[in-house]
Design brief:
About 45% of the residues lie in helices and about 20% in strands. It is built from 14 helices and 14 strands. The strands form 2 sheets. The chain has an 8-stranded mixed beta sheet with strand order 3-4-2-1-5-6-7-8, sandwiched between helices. Strands 11-10-9-12-13-14 form a 6-stranded parallel beta sheet, with helices on both faces.
Length: about 375
């Protein structure tokens, strides 16, 4: 099957986050199953990749009328465009996909553009910030949907009356599994919505415990300056820039801290860490309880900071407690719903179902056209 993933957000390596990581690992897995995959994404004009993409876009704009560039990433084709919703028709003509999967990054806008191509469409629901969908979800009409957690599915069911399939984010264990030295408490993506203030306060309350804050989404200058200022007074905290290989981070991690104050749709860093037996101290909001399961401790972000610090310290100091949660983390990361074979099978079923539904709709439209009723001979 030929599969085209589409998003208005920037993609690897220009932008790193859960959506990009999940898409890349899923594309590689689908390709290993014999499918042909490609991605259409937005782009950032800065940096070497932005500069090269800009040059390619100018050349293609003069040649074919569309500002798009094409690269190879992880052995599949990646298209970048200033306005990917406008370039989608051109990319569809080039890739000839059997199905389009609209991911996070103005997904409604991308899906509406995809519907104009008449290629079967699947909506991948990856967050519950409905104001960031790039349009009103109801405009799409009946469209097959996949949600990245039961929490996400429930939110869309309550708001729009749909019943999405649930397929957890695709995470390749081999990319994250590592031997550990248990040197620090790790906090990934130090932004306010991810619980930056909770993490800073926990580090202040535990000055004898080493912490590592790891950039994921690119920090805007205001956030970067604030973080640098706060960390000057916290010698037990080390800041690391964004990186493609997270094994180097998890190799030194004893505890993962994920104190998000917003509603995470899933929280894939919890699974990434648990693959190596790292327990998680996390927020009880959104999809994080599904991601953490029994392999960690869940706290309400509004609980006193002393309780957050106490949970971290108990895991740090109580080896029996730690070993129990570490074993539970390993088991939770090995559950069937998160295994690669199960997820690839689930995605193949979802894509085939979308194609079947689309064919049925087209057949119904054909049968209802009085000038095109099939004859017995046909």
């Amino acid at each position: 099957m030929r599969v085209l993933f589409v998003t208005a957000s920037a993609y690897l390596p220009q932008s790193r986050g859960g959506m990009q990581s999940s898409a890349n690992e899923l594309c590689i897995a689908l390709k290993s199953r014999g499918h042909r995959v490609a991605v259409l994404a937005g782009f950032k004009p800065n940096g070497l990749i932005g500069w090269k993409s800009h040059l390619k876009m100018e050349i293609n704009r003069r040649r074919c009328g569309f500002s798009v560039s094409r690269d190879i990433i992880s052995e599949y084709r990646l298209w970048r465009a200033r306005f990917p919703w406008d370039a989608l028709g051109y990319v569809v003509d080039e890739e000839k996909p059997d199905v389009i999967i609209a991911m996070s990054g103005q997904p409604v806008r991308m899906a509406l553009a995809a519907k104009r191509t008449h290629v079967p469409l699947v909506m991948l629901l990856q967050h519950v910030e409905f104001q960031l969908l790039g349009g009103f979800f109801g405009e799409l009409g009946k469209v097959p949907c996949v949600a990245n957690s039961r929490f996400t599915a429930g939110k869309y069911r309550a708001r729009f009356g749909i019943n999405p399939r649930v397929i957890y984010p695709f995470i390749c264990p081999g990319i994250y599994r590592t031997q550990r030295t248990n040197e620090n408490v790790t906090f990934i993506n130090p932004l306010p919505v991810k619980g930056r203030e909770i993490a800073l306060e926990v580090a202040r309350r535990c000055p004898d415990i080493p912490f590592v804050f790891v950039e994921s989404w690119q920090l805007f200058e205001e956030n970067r300056q604030y973080l640098v200022k706060e960390l000057r007074a916290l010698p037990n905290v080390t800041f690391l820039s964004s990186r493609s290989d997270m094994r180097s981070v998890y190799a030194k991690c004893r505890i993962l801290l994920a104190p998000s104050v917003w509603e995470e749709a899933y929280g894939r860093v919890a699974t990434e860490a648990q693959i190596s037996g790292i327990p998680v101290v996390a927020s009880s909001r959104g999809g994080l309880p599904e991601a953490v399961g029994p392999g960690g401790i869940l706290l309400n972000p509004e609980q006193p900071i002393l309780e957050w610090a106490a949970a971290v310290r108990k895991l740090w100091e109580d080896q029996r407690h730690y070993d129990e949660l570490s074993a539970a983390a390993l088991a939770h990361a090995a559950r069937r719903e998160i295994s690669s074979p199960y997820q690839i099978d689930a995605w193949e079923k979802a894509m085939m179902s979308a194609c079947t539904e689309s064919a049925a709709v087209q057949e119904t439209a054909f049968d209802c056209d009085g000038s095109n009723f099939p004859t017995l001979a046909s």
